[in-house]
Write a structure and sequence with these properties.
about 0% strand
Length: about 550
């Protein structure tokens, strides 16, 4: 090539350059030439023929033979090291030619092509190659994004000056990269986008000022990637990048909101990011809406996916922002017409908050959660999705009874449930044994309180007693605890509520039948229950037990 160009008159110099072709270790940059030769190579090559040579090298890089591509990639690497900034006018053609080969990792020229991209990042000004990368990403179809993102990753790895271009990174790179992420849904693009963010953050480790780090845009890009994650492995790798961002932020001693919590260094670093960025990210998710009522949860959309992702990923710190979050949870789950997947995710998040949060007081929110979130989702509907929603809602209700300590708050919850006894009875007869067990063990046992009136109790005790005949032994044992709570805590005195002894007779008579059950644990549970409630109406109790013994045959 050189022999056909402007250096043809200097055949010795041409031979020196061509000797480098095919062996990157013989790059002229590291070759021990005579001083006169060094001056000629560093001056003549860039000034006279870099632009002329480059197109022919790129043509050879597209050759169908692996040997030609390998030789061309090595020649281009040599030219990049000699010409440096002189090749900026050719950056579009160079990147286009290199990036198209990033899809074939088995190509013998692949490693050298990667070295070319790293050299571009190292030797050329970042504004030149960043602009071309984003123009290509924004103009090409989604299927081409992964190759350009992989090329960008290599250039970021090689760049030494990008951290010095603070304004370029904060005002151009980070926002445009964030917009690009929203356009790519395929897994290879997500993989390389994550790698690009990781390479970018590596440059900011030890940065003297937090303002120099594009925290907001990087976090938003990671949140967008999180909303499209499909596998556990992908999720864990993304969380490592989030924790890397958190580690950088920890250098500035930001308030993490994780004091007193145990966990790994990675999880604590992630908490720093989510705590610091939660409210700004929430406002960005809700944009352009300013009111929760304007958000559409009836259909699955990018906005709802981002909202669910933000809430689930920030679950460890969300309890600090309950006043802002509760209206969203209520709006998302309060209507059965909303998207089922969104409701499942939000209910799971609420359950996770109730299980893990030790700081926030749920007393002020419990009544609203039960009335506007739990009860609407406990209504029976057919299908597996409806069962998942119903099961999660009942688990939330049981957990609320465990979390709430104030008596007045528990009474408010009992009033709401007392108005929806039909829903409770339906769940008590559910086909799924898990639902019946939670209802008997986690709902009815702590529910019974003097706030239930006589009519409600009259409707409830037959349904609950019938669960002693349940097909699942765990449900039967749990029912004895619920009946004990009913008689000991909820029923008014016998002379006021059960003057005829009808209710007590019904419960005890059905319980005595199970004293000769084939399962010893059932017999023991029923016996303990009967012994603990015998005080309620001793006269009726003795009569029923004596009658049962007279008819007992074993």
């Amino acid at each position: 090539i050189l022999a056909d160009r402007k250096l043809s008159e200097d055949s010795s110099l041409a031979r020196m350059v061509l000797d480098c072709d095919g062996d990157e270790s013989k790059s002229l940059e590291g070759k021990e030439e005579l001083p006169a030769q060094k001056g000629r190579i560093s001056g003549i090559i860039p000034a006279l023929c870099a632009i002329d040579i480059c197109p022919q090298i790129l043509n050879q890089l597209d050759s169908w033979t692996a040997q030609d591509r390998y030789q061309a990639s090595n020649t281009l690497l040599t030219l990049l090291n000699m010409a440096k900034g002189e090749l900026v006018p050719m950056i579009k053609e160079i990147l286009t030619s290199l990036v198209k080969h990033m899809t074939d990792m088995e190509d013998p020229a692949f490693k050298t092509i990667c070295l070319n991209l790293e050299s571009i990042g190292k030797l050329l000004p970042p504004e030149a190659w960043l602009e071309q990368v984003f123009k290509s990403l924004e103009s090409q179809a989604e299927g081409s994004h992964s190759s350009w993102l992989s090329g960008l990753e290599k250039m970021l790895q090689g760049s030494m000056s990008i951290v010095e271009k603070k304004e370029l990174v904060r005002k151009q790179f980070a926002p445009r990269f964030r917009r690009t992420i929203s356009l790519s849904d395929d897994r290879p693009s997500r993989f390389y986008a994550r790698s690009c963010l990781q390479s970018l953050l590596a440059h900011f480790e030890g940065s003297p000022r937090l303002e120099d780090v594009p925290v907001s845009d990087v976090f938003w890009s990671l949140l967008q990637l999180h909303s499209k994650v499909e596998t556990r492995d992908e999720f864990e790798k993304l969380e490592k990048v989030v924790s890397k961002l958190g580690s950088i932020m920890q250098q500035f001693e930001l308030e993490s909101g994780a004091e007193g919590k145990s966990g790994t260094a990675q999880s604590l670093a992630s908490d720093v990011v989510y705590n610091h960025q939660f409210m700004s990210a929430l406002r960005r998710v809700l944009h352009p809406h300013t009111k929760v009522e304007e958000v559409d949860f009836e259909n699955d959309s990018e906005q709802t996916r981002l909202l669910v992702t933000l809430l689930r990923r920030a679950a460890t710190v969300v309890h600090h922002y309950l006043p802002a979050v509760m209206p969203l949870l209520t709006k998302a789950c309060g209507s059965v017409d909303n998207d089922p997947r969104t409701r499942i995710h939000i209910l799971s998040l609420l359950l996770q908050l109730l299980n893990s949060s030790r700081r926030s007081s749920w007393n002020s929110h419990a009544s609203q959660i039960v009335e506007r979130i739990v009860l609407p989702n406990m209504v029976w509907r057919s299908g597996d999705t409806a069962l998942t929603i119903r099961h999660t809602a009942i688990k939330i209700l049981a957990r609320i009874f465990q979390q709430v300590s104030e008596r007045k708050c528990r009474q408010d919850i009992a009033r709401h449930l007392g108005k929806s006894l039909e829903v409770l009875e339906t769940c008590l007869d559910d086909d799924d044994a898990r639902v019946r067990l939670i209802m008997a063990q986690g709902v009815f046992t702590p529910l019974f309180d003097p706030v239930l009136d006589e009519l409600q109790l009259s409707k409830l005790y037959p349904k609950l007693t019938d669960r002693l005949d349940d097909s699942d032994d765990s449900v039967r044992i749990a029912t004895t605890s619920a009946l004990r709570a009913l008689i000991c805590c909820a029923l008014p005195p016998a002379e006021a509520f059960d003057r005829t002894g009808q209710a007590f007779t019904y419960i005890v008579k059905h319980s005595l039948i199970h004293l000769d059950d084939s399962e010893t644990k059932i017999c023991d549970a029923v016996f303990e229950f009967l012994r603990s409630v015998s005080f309620y109406n001793p006269k009726v109790f003795v009569e029923l037990v004596a009658d049962a013994r007279s008819r007992h045959t074993t």
